[in-house]
Amino acid sequence: MSTMSEDQSSNGSGKKTWVEKIGAAFANHPRNRDELLEVLYAACEQGILDDDALAMMEGAIEMSETQVRDAMIPRSQMVVVNNDSRLEEFLPRIIDSGHSRFPVIGEDKDEVVGILLAKDLLPHVASGGEGFDMAATIRPAVVIPESKRLNVLLRDFRISRNHMAIVIDEYGGVSGLITIEDVLEEIVGEIGDEYDEEDEVLILPLGNNRYQVQALTPIEDLNEKFGSNLSDDDYDTVGGLLLAEFGRVPEFDEVVTL
Fold first, then answer.
1. Which of 27, 59, 118, 219 meets the CB 3.0–4.6 Å disulfide criterion with 232?
2. C-alpha to C-alpha distance for 113 and 106, rounded to whole angstroms
């Protein structure tokens, strides 16, 4: 009685079909995201990958599950230019910010009429601002929802050659903006340059068990610092949580128990 060897096909011909060969080649390969991450972690533990390479690969994999709202610059931190401003009025703000692109707004930040590129101002700066026309200088703004996935946004940025998008919430209000640099930082980590300020201390000890906490502090960081268990299901930051508790913008020295 003969037995079939590993090289023999189930059709009895003794040769594997191309389908069987491909199946065998991928038999031990990761079949989903979690298995792929396990392979990468193992490679790092064995010294095949270093920590930086592992972090970049993790970031690239997780982009497909990360939404714009998780990486955007919030509305409160947007550096904007008013549509009716003169060049000499907003030029110092542009220089101080070190940014290259700025939303141009009308009545408020919910009315974004376009994007102003700093490089487009150079001819007007050289001429002392003569003949500057905001409407003729700005470019159309790309508007995207908070729920858009970063991998899709990165692809769109590459195709359209845009580097900034305005982010809106489910009600159509502007919730922030995101740049191609913000997306890439999700893969490679923080990209610093000579214009970036040092990271602000979000939780500052004042002594006697008192702390100054910035409104933009993630609730997750607050919980980790103080061993608390505040929910971040509905709000990401301490500021959002406090606004919900007070139901309004609190006055200085007001107190609430969480």
1. 219
2. 7
Q: For the chain, how many structural domains are there in total?
A: 3
Q: Both 100 and 179 in a single domain?
A: yes
Torsion of CA 2, 3, 7, 9, to 10 degrees: 90
Q: Which two tokens stand for residue 204?
A: 């500052």
pLDDT tens-digit map of 133-189: 999 999 999 999 999 999 999 999 999 999 999 999 999 999 999 999 999 888 877
255 part of a folded domain: no
Is residue 1 included in any domain, yes or no?
Answer: no
**Radius of gyration of the CA atoms of the chain, in A:** 26
The whole domain housing 26 covers 18-65
* 163 plus 88 within the same structural domain: yes
| Residue 162 belongs to domain with CATH number | 3.10.580.10
Is residue 10 a contact partner of residue 16, using CB atoms and an 8 Å limit? Answer: no
Across the beta sheet with 164-168, what order do the strands follow? Answer: 73-74, 174-179, 164-168, 143-145
What digits encode the pLDDT tens for the residues 78-91?
999 999 998 888 98
Beta bridge partners of 82: 105
Closest CA to 149 of 72, 236, 68: 68
**219 φ/ψ sector (left φ>0, alpha ψ -120 to 50, else beta):** alpha
Q: Clarify whether residues 167 and 235 are in a common domain.
A: no
At CA 102, angle to CA 189 and CA 162, rounded to 5?
A: 65
